């Protein structure tokens, strides 16, 4: 039982990261109908920029905040100067476009930082915390707390604020939102900013658990997108649940089957689930089809 609980704890940490990436995908998709395949690069940049700023003797907190700000600005620039100028492109073309953006960011990162991994110090101590028969790194607790705070913040923004209602209005019907005086362009830009910021936060909190490098965001982005598809495209709750489910399956598969099959097991479950229910476990949330 202790072994099982340890695997579950590890899976929840990984699943929380996948859930954040998935929410980033959906935040953009629901407003603009764009599937941003560069989402994983926001995580990579969050960790790499923080490492660089700390090496310049900037305090940890200041480095993290500045990194989040810079990544957020990058997300806005991508929407304003790339996505917005391709608003008449079909969905497949937009996906290929964002893949190109992802590749470009990764290439520039490899030039700036090289291909060697970098270590980011933990927020608190390296000493693990033991409770209930399991041992958890203190940084893992920060990861879970960050996930919960991000999910709560996004829920509060979307359901309890006027700004969130404007975003939701654009996701339901772009034309009606425009007639009500809401700018879909600004809401789309905001969705990219939110997605980039949450991705940067995720990248900062997960970097101390292993290492960060120029290509760390590629696989995380794919797994986050897998959670989106598994949970149901456009369904934030479904994507969150699917993200945690993928993390648990990976951890249990690595523990009881083979660590070499860790990634393969998660995607095998995804394939089987989609063969049984192509719309995802929770189906797609009903959203309008007009976007920018």
UniProtKB/TrEMBL annotation:
It is found in: Cell membrane. Its main location: membrane. Belongs to the binding-protein-dependent transport system permease family. LivHM subfamily. Pfam families: BPD_transp_2 (PF02653). One of its GO terms (molecular function) is transmembrane transporter activity. One of its GO terms (biological process) is amino acid transport. InterPro entries: ABC_transp_permease, BCAA_transport_permease. Keywords: Amino-acid transport, Cell membrane, Membrane, Transmembrane, Transmembrane helix, Transport. One of its GO terms (cellular component) is plasma membrane. It is a multi-pass membrane protein. The keyword Cytoplasm does not apply. This is High-affinity branched-chain amino acid transport system permease protein LivH.
